[in-house]
C-alpha cells in the first residue's frame, strides 16, 4: 500500500493569532484543522493564485454562513517540502491583507 507522507507544517504569526482567536469555536477550529491536514497530504487542493499573489494557494472554508479563507504555499527546504500557512481569516478584505502581509514579511518576499 502506497501511503503518502504529510508535508511538515509551519504557521506564520498572523495565522497563529487567528487560530488562537477561534479556539472557543470548536467546530470552526476543527474545520481549519481538517483542511490543513488534507493540504499536508495534497497541497494542490487549493486554488493557485496569480499576479501579486503568484505562488500562493487559497482554500475556502464556510462556517455558519460566513466565508473564511486560508492562504498557504509549499516551500522546498534542504530537508524536504513544508506547507507554510501564511494567513487565515474571514473573506472580507482578506486578499488586500494578504498582499500587504506578503510585502512586509521578509519570509514571503521571494514568492
Largest sheet: 5 strands, mixed
Going by CATH, the architecture would be: 2-Layer Sandwich
Gross morphology is globular
Q: Could you tell me the strand content as a percent range?
A: 25-35%
The value of Rg in angstroms is 14 Å
Number of helices: 3
What class do helices, strands and sheet pairing give?
Answer: alpha+beta
Average the pLDDT over all residues and give the rounded result: 91
CATH class: Alpha Beta
CATH topology: YaeB-like fold
Describe this structure in words.
- With 111 residues, the protein is an alpha+beta fold.
- The chain has a single domain, classed as YaeB-like fold (2-Layer Sandwich).
- Helices cover 32% and strands 32% of the residues.
- The protein has three helices and five strands, in the order E-H-H-E-E-E-E-H.
- The chain has helices at 13-21, 26-41, 94-104, and strands at residues 8-11, 47-48, 57-63, 66-77, 80-90.
- A five-stranded mixed beta sheet has the order 1-5-4-3-2, sandwiched between helices.
- The longest helix is centred in the N-terminal third of the chain and has 16 residues, at 26-41.
- The mean pLDDT is 91.
